[in-house]
Amino acid sequence: MFIFNEDQNSHYYLHRQLDLGSFSYKIFLCIAIASIKMKNRKKNNTFAAMDIDKNYMNMCLQLAKQGIKDVSPNPMVGCVIVHKGEIIGQGYHQKYGEAHAEVNAINSVKAKSLLSNSTLYVNLEPCSHFGKTPPCSNLIIEHKIPKVVIGCIDTYSEVSGNGIKKLKDARVEVIIGVLERKSQELNKRFFNYHAKKRPYVILKWAKTQDGFIDVDRTDIEYLEKLKQETDLKNEEKPYNWITSNESKKLVHHWRTEVQAIMVGTNTAFNDDPQLTVRGINEANNPLRVILDLNLRLPDTLRVFNGSVPTIVLNYSKNEKRHNLEFIQINKEKDLVSEILNQLFELKVQSVLIEGGTKLLETFIESNLWDEARVFTGIKEFSKGLKAPILKQSPNTSLMFGEDHLDFFFND
Ligand SMILES: NC(=O)c1ccc[n+]([C@@H]2O[C@H](COP(=O)([O-])OP(=O)(O)OC[C@H]3O[C@@H](n4cnc5c(N)ncnc54)[C@H](OP(=O)(O)O)[C@@H]3O)[C@@H](O)[C@H]2O)c1
């Protein structure tokens, strides 16, 4: 019996099973080798095509990232149009309410006649509904683009699968799932927001070597000593500061990547933080969210200076002044769910919870958090307010400047 398989041993089998000198053997050998070569070529072509698709999808992802600051609450989307191996158009979603990536990419194509023989790559399923702009799937069909390669499906209820269905119904060839995980990862906050009806929650704190988040504020003598040891003129780094300058810069960068920053009542009062982005050019300030359930914070605090949109979640009033809004939450309901519901209503897709211990622990206990980023500095306080403790090992750890940085994911 002739055993035919694609690996190199197939030649060995051929030699074993047939008369090596016969003419029929030689013909057979030629056909078999040609067949193996064709199969291998087909396989190699498929792999090469997959690699090409991945390369263009990677370009889409890089383009998409350029929208990070301005597209929220929309997802980040990039698009590349390829004709016979040549990129003829590209674009990304630049600003919320403005043209989608597919529109910008199609508009950038000079010879529109080439579109009917091109492939469009996009990291997210093209939309199918009339939102702030007309549906992208309609535009693709109008321009008779015959093939669309998609990174991942849009799980947003108004789109989910409908964009793909529309394209397929119009006989467009659709390939789904090229660099799917990377595509999902890029817009994980957007997906999280629509799937869980709450923002993506990132907890962040810094602790000392001996596990404290703050000094002991009741021990006046010890506080005085600490203050004397610190450069009091350095407003940016008060006496209870734990981490290095590098880590501080990183936190400001993280602030540019979220839509809101939140702190607890005691943190707002004790530290008088500004909760703004500093040291990074052209960065947007996120919404400031202050928890002040019993309205005990003085309006002299810097978070109330009106420089940045700020909301105060509290138990007693709804009131709006320039850039400052008091929003009443229900005392009878679970606090974390109430906070997250309010942020969902405000279309906030990501929030960085910057402390203190009570607020962080309340989020940890509720299990309504997605990521935690924890710095451990080289300082020791020897006594003070204990930092929260997570009952899981970090997913990633690294050194940042002189600090240790742990990342935890709550999957
Ligand atoms: N190292 C760091 O990374 C870092 C970061 C931020 C803050 N901190 C330090 O942390 C200290 C404050 O921490 P903290 O634990 O005392 O206070 P906090 O978390 O900032 O605020 C807690 C306060 O919020 C209100 N609250 C009521 N119920 C709550 C609940 N279930 N969850 C959360 N908050 C609730 C309470 O105010 P009412 O009494 O008015 O009800 C409570 O006293 C500050 O002194 C600051 O220096 C350190």
Compose a concise summary of this entry.
With 411 residues, the chain is of the alpha/beta class. Helices cover 34% and strands 21% of the residues. The model is unreliable at 1-21 (pLDDT under 50).
Question: What do you see in this structure?
Answer:
This protein is α/β, with parallel strands linked by helices. The protein is built from 12 helices and 17 strands. The strands form 3 sheets. A 10-stranded mixed beta sheet has the order 11-12-10-9-8-13-6-14-17-16, sandwiched between helices. Helix 4 links the parallel strand 3 (119-124) and strand 4. Helix 4 (136-142) runs parallel beside helix 5. The longest helix has 43 residues, at 23-65. The protein is elongated and about 95 Å long. Mean pLDDT is 88; it is low at 1-21. It binds NADP nicotinamide-adenine-dinucleotide phosphate. NADP nicotinamide-adenine-dinucleotide phosphate binds next to strand 6, strand 7, helix 10 and helix 12.
